[in-house]
């Protein structure tokens, strides 16, 4: 059940003491970077006096823009010859954020992922098919190293080539897979088109889903399609990648590995701490990374604290699934809407297929919103009143969830564009 029982079930007071000790070392390490050295000098911050969360809050949050401004070596805290790998992600400006890793960093990260995988039941005798992209994207290699640390047989198939994915799933009787949720839904349709039954002809027991926000309803649909357990994970390249937080077997929130990270959840406008149960932006600080220590990183991801003890016995605090991102939110007729709200409604309707698209446009100086939804093929049998009732029901449910009334368009399966990577759910043409 536990990969590292002593750490995973550590008394809260001991865990706080461990965080304090590691925070002191992290801040001193960060002071070796040109970025934090300049920041500390400017604000007259003495790194050696930062040891608690209260002390840490004297340091301004670090943003993605700060990481870009420090390109390429502004956040490097070790000599370059000690670095064995870098990962990066590019943004709209084209300037990438770069995270460096020493061999010890890679080992620490791999161990966190192994801890996460072991906690949901991955064992040495499993066959692990990794359907995530490899390379600069951290998801593929991060899970790969963690699974190998457990001793699992890893198939590094990477993303894409769905027919090949299905061939490997069937012939090697893969038991564990790492997959984007929207692709899991798409792949189930392709498995069916190959004349296979994803719950009968495959041997999947555990599906690790992440890389994009998704609703509980999406998770439940994936579990029904594959007759396997789907576990939610959280990570981001600035914090290594996967392994920041992970569900346990009880699937009631993600345990944040607090021996490796300090998490704050704050109001994104005021940066004031949020109480348990209140949605806010996550701010993370690394505690076990040598090459690129980052203090108070604004993730833009939205979640809330869960303060009840977990039946699994782990003492590390839990967070909700990611509810969206501050930069994913769109405003329609003055209402703040997150795509995951619409995902929740659609995936709760059994008539809805695996794909949908939210389109925002501006006509005659007025914003319009339509949701194109693929529905099951058996519904297109000429029963127009039935289709109209479905359309009206979905429209009413979206209105109840979001307080706005979009135009609902029901389309046949295969009508909307698909991707083997992260799904594009929103097309905003208002600014084009």
From TrEMBL:
Pathway: Aromatic compound metabolism; phenylacetate degradation. SUPFAM superfamilies: Acetyl-CoA synthetase-like. Its EC number is 6.2.1.30. It comes from the Bacteria. The keyword Ligase applies. Monomer. Residues 334-430 form the AMP-dependent ligase C-terminal domain. Keywords: Ligase, Nucleotide-binding, Phosphopantetheine, Phosphoprotein. Catalyzes the activation of phenylacetic acid (PA) to phenylacetyl-CoA (PA-CoA). This is Phenylacetate-coenzyme A ligase. It catalyses: 2-phenylacetate + ATP + CoA = phenylacetyl-CoA + AMP + diphosphate. GO terms for molecular function: nucleotide binding; phenylacetate-CoA ligase activity. Belongs to the phenylacetyl-CoA ligase family. It is an enzyme of class 6 (ligase). Residues 81-284 form the AMP-dependent synthetase/ligase domain. GO terms for biological process: phenylacetate catabolic process. Pfam families: AMP-binding, AMP-binding_C_2.
């Amino acid at each position: 059940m536990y990969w590292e029982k002593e750490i995973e079930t550590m008394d809260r007071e001991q865990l706080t003491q461990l965080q304090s000790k590691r925070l002191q070392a992290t801040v001193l390490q960060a002071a070796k970077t040109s970025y934090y050295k300049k920041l500390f000098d400017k604000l007259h911050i003495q790194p050696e006096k930062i040891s608690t969360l209260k002390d840490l809050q004297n340091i301004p949050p670090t943003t993605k823009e700060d990481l870009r401004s420090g390109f390429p070596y502004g956040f490097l805290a070790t000599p370059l010859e000690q670095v064995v790998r870098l990962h990066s992600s590019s943004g709209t400006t084209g300037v990438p954020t770069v995270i460096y890793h020493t061999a010890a960093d890679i080992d620490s990260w791999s161990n966190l992922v192994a801890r996460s995988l072991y906690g949901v039941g991955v064992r040495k005798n499993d066959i692990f098919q990794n359907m995530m992209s490899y390379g600069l994207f951290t998801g593929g290699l991060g899970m790969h190293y963690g699974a190998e640390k457990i001793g699992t047989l890893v198939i590094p198939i990477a993303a894409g080539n769905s027919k090949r994915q299905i061939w490997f799933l069937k012939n090697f009787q893969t038991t564990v897979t790492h997959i984007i949720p929207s692709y899991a839904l798409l792949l189930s349709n392709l498995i069916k088109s190959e004349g296979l039954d994803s719950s009968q002809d495959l041997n999947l027991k555990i599906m690790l889903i992440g890389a994009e926000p998704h609703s509980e309803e999406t998770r439940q649909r994936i579990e029904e399609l594959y007759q396997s357990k789907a576990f939610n994970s959280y990570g981001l390249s600035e914090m290594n990648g996967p392994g920041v937080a992970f569900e346990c077997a009880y699937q009631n929130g993600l345990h944040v590995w607090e021996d490796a990270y300090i998490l704050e959840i704050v109001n994104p406008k005021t940066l004031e701490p949020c109480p348990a149960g209140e949605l806010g932006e996550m701010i993370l600080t690394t505690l076990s990374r040598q090459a690129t220590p980052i203090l108070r990183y604004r993730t833009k991801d939205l979640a809330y604290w869960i303060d009840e003890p977990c039946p699994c016995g782990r003492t590390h605090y839990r967070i909700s699934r990611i509810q969206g991102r501050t930069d994913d939110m769109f405003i329609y007729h003055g209402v703040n809407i997150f795509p995951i709200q619409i995902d929740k409604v659609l995936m709760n309707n059994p008539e809805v297929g695996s794909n949908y698209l939210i389109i925002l446009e501006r006509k005659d100086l007025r914003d319009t919103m339509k949701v194109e939804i693929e529905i099951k093929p058996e519904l297109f049998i000429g029963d127009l009143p039935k289709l109209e009732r479905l359309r009206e029901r979905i429209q009413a449910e979206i209105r109840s969830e979001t307080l706005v009334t979009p135009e609902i368009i029901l389309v046949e399966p295969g009508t909307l564009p698909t991707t083997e990577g992260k799904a594009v759910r929103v097309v905003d043409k208002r600014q084009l």
